[in-house]
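Box 3.1 A note on notation
Throughout this textbook, protein chains are presented in two layers. The first layer is the amino acid sequence; the second is a token string describing backbone geometry. Keep the layers aligned when reading.
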Amino acid sequence: MGNGSVTHRPVLDKNTDSRAFRDFYYLKEELTDFCRKNGLPVSGGKIELTDRIAHFLDTGEVLSAKKVKRKAASVSHIRISEDMKIETDFICSEQHRAFFKAHIGNSFSFSVAFQKWLKDNSGKTYKDAIAAYYQILEDKKKGKTKIDKQFEYNTYIRDFFADNQGKSLEDAVRCWNYKKQLQGHNRYERSDLAAIKKKGSGSSGT
């Protein structure tokens, strides 16, 4: 069928092209279901599952989940100090939690926004991390954080595909952009499909 890119979300099976797989949105349940059927580990978050499946589609090789666990264990006996640099593959451990509680107080928790900051800022110090934690709290008081917006987007895309199997990510994003221009909430509704119909028809259509 030529070299054109895939425009419809393919059914996820062992013959799916890994690039097409990465181009489309799949629910976590679909990813774990694929892993179960093909003997891949089902542990880990969505990013880890996606990488594991893409590797399997490319090579046919099953990546074990044990490698990740070993990394987590190796950090656990390092003494954390304010001047120490944040590790490249940061993993929230009990030792990290104890360190932050000692410096921030018992109200400390690993929020999604703070975990993202830690993963995006390896090489900075734990002193920087403490300052970033307070900044994130401050931003949250002022209103929506970037994480909130990302969560809204992810939820919208997930709900779009639950209602429109076979449509492309481009269609989903077009509907999302249309939705943001409307007053009110940013949750998916079937009426948002007007954004796609508008593009496809010059005259009125049903």
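Residues 146-200 form one domain. The chain has ten helices and no strands.
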